[in-house]
Amino acid sequence: MNLSTVSALALIFGAGTFSSASALAQAPVPASQIRALNLARNTAVTENGGLSVYRPQPCMFKTSDGGGECLVQDDANGYTFNFLGGQPGWPEDGSNPTTETELQVAPDGRSVTNIIYNGSPR
User: Is 103:46 a contact under the CB 8 Å cutoff?
Assistant: First the structure.
């Protein structure tokens, strides 16, 4: 083995160890949070006329991070989401959102406990 082969192997195995360590550092999203996200998104779609006229903010589709920036509170009262929405394609084509929705879902993620706001962006 020459020096470049040894260096390449060190880089490959070192990078693999590093990426595994960073992946292990992220805690999995609880199933209740994923259920809450899906329920919150689907509730907003229903409340705002269906998918043919309304699309929620992209963060409401990110189940891998449980809603990311749309999840504004996670406590004993449940999950609170606040997100924008608008006509289909609004984030992609640069249109302004037409709706803001804020709602709370039960801690088990199975029921909406409060639609706090659903109207024009505040």
Answer: no
Cα(first)–Cα(last) distance of the chain, in Å?
65
Banded pLDDT at 1 (limits 50, 70, 90): low
Both tokens assigned to 81: 């989401």
**Per residue in 60-85, pLDDT tens?**
999 999 999 999 999 999 999 999 99
- 54 phi, psi to nearest 5 deg: -140, 140
Question: Distance between CA 95 and CA 41 in Å, rounded?
Answer: 20
Distance of CA 30 to CAs 67, 68, 88, 109, Å?
12, 13, 29, 10
Residues 6+ apart with CB under 8 A from 50: none
pTM above 0.85, yes or no: no
Helix (H) or strand (E) holding 105: strand 99-105
- Record the tokens describing residue 3, joined without a space: 């020096």
Question: Phi and psi for 15 in degrees, rounded to 5?
Answer: -65, -40
